[in-house]
Amino acid sequence: MADPNLISPENVPGEFYVDLNCIRCAACWKEAPANISSHAIETYAYFSRQPRTASEREACERALKICPVQSIGKR
């Protein structure tokens, strides 16, 4: 389960977040490319935009479910 105490600082405010346990496997940003980005230098992803549409929300929910290290969370 994602740790709300370890939220990466790049996450935009909102319901979804990625914590610092992310291993940058690419699964999440391939699943939700409109919402999740990869940090250019560090080894983690982050929410660059919260979902705005039903389809984006569904993609973010799928990304949460497929994360192999459970680094994606919801508030």
Written account of the structure:
It is globular and about 30 Å long. The protein has 75 residues and is of the alpha+beta class. It has helices at residues 27-31, 54-66, and strands at residues 16-18, 36-38, 45-47, 72-74. It has a two-stranded antiparallel ribbon with strand order 1-4. The protein has a two-stranded antiparallel sheet with strand order 2-3. 24% of the residues lie in helices and 16% in strands. The model has no long low-confidence stretch (mean pLDDT 95). It is built from two helices and four strands; from the N terminus they run βαββαβ.
List the helices and strands and how they pair.
Layout: E1 16-18, H1 27-31, E2 36-38, E3 45-47, H2 54-66, E4 72-74
Antiparallel strand pairs: 1-4, 2-3
Number of helices: 2
Strand neighbour order, sheet with most strands? 1-4
Give the overall average pLDDT.
95
- Count all strands and give the number: 4
Q: Tell me, briefly, the overall form.
A: globular
- Structural class, from helix and strand content? alpha+beta
**Contiguous uncertain segments of 5+ residues:** none
How much beta, percentage-wise?
15-25%
Reading the helices and strands in chain order gives EHEEHE
Distance, first to last CA? 12 Å
| Assembly of the depicted chains | single chain
Radius of gyration from the CA trace?
11 Å
Major sheet, described briefly?
2 strands, antiparallel
Helix-residue proportion = 10-25%
